[in-house]
Amino acid sequence: MPTIGGRRPGFGLRVRKDGNKALAAADADCPCGQFSKAASGDVDVEALVIRYGRHRRDECPIPEIRAAAARQYAALQQSLSKRRK
Ligand SMILES: [Zn+2]
Known about the structure:
Elements: E1 12-16, E2 25-29, E3 36-40, H1 42-59, H2 63-84
Antiparallel strand pairs: 1-2, 2-3
Bound molecules: zinc ion.
């Protein structure tokens, strides 16, 4: 089964989608232990990815997690605005 986005097994976000007809599935675990969820189906998986990103950036009690998420968001925003021009 292909796994995307899980370079470090254990904590983190994992999203699976096998072929176009398969249901997407995802689970996310934060090292703080306050965020551990799973979802299936395109809509729910997308919502989980967004909620996990928001938790890491805004809600997580671990400062290192929030700092890393803030850097990722900044990089993402930069690449998005570059693409739009
Ligand atoms: Zn957390």
